[in-house]
Fold:
Amino acid sequence: MRKEQAHTAAELLTILSARQLRNGQVVFAGVGIPLLAATLAQRLHCPELTILFEGGVIGAFIEPGKLPPTTNDQRCTVRANMVLGSAEVLLLLQRGYVDVGFMGGAQIDQYGNLNSSFIGDPAHPKTRLPGTGGGNDIASLAQMIVAMKHEKRRFVEHVDFITSPGFLRGNDTRHESGLVSGGMFRVITDLAVFDFDETSRRMRVIALNPGVTPEQVQDNTGFTLIFAPDLHTSEPPTDQEMKVLRELDSERLYTA
Structure:
């Protein structure tokens, strides 16, 4: 039975993201909400989910209340199946062993291209960001889920720099550029859930978050959105989802 209770925007984002994962998948998770959402899914409905971290951990099983602040933290290794070097983990991507990449970004555009490098003119950027890490490799080779806060400055018509490729310029341009596998699967925000149109590869709203209107989503987006004809509202978090999430993130590291 689903019951609505008070939750933060970050908690809703985490729960909706966790629902996108399926049992038996291998998921390459970035730090923050992606790490927490993958761990939550593993506890709730994906007991055979295999989580990979860029630091080399395979088969992570994070302890409640001990979320690592980075994917290189030793807390990532507790009960893990194996710990390798970063290069070996990225080789698993190239060999096709990873089903889903799961990360965030500072900017995303209408074709799902992500920017985590800089904001503004590349010669004189306003803001320098962490950069790619393994983000380009993951987005180039796996199906992608992106979790991020929904703001007009983040959802832009064209990103300032493509750190991690989505569908590039839309239509078949990703495949034509040599990226023959992977692509954007879902974008989850604190306002809605998105997929990408099968032909144009433009971002499309498929579900609104509870209490959100289509107008709110469009007003907070810097490009014209497509809305699915069967647009619906996502189910609110259940008591069980909230209970497990708050046990995992008892220090509110990611969900405050």
Notes: Residues 9-248 form a domain with the Glutaconate Coenzyme A-transferase fold (CATH 3.40.1080.10). The chain has a mean pLDDT of 93. Residues 33-44 form the longest helix (12 residues). Residues 56 and 100 are 16 Å apart (CA to CA).
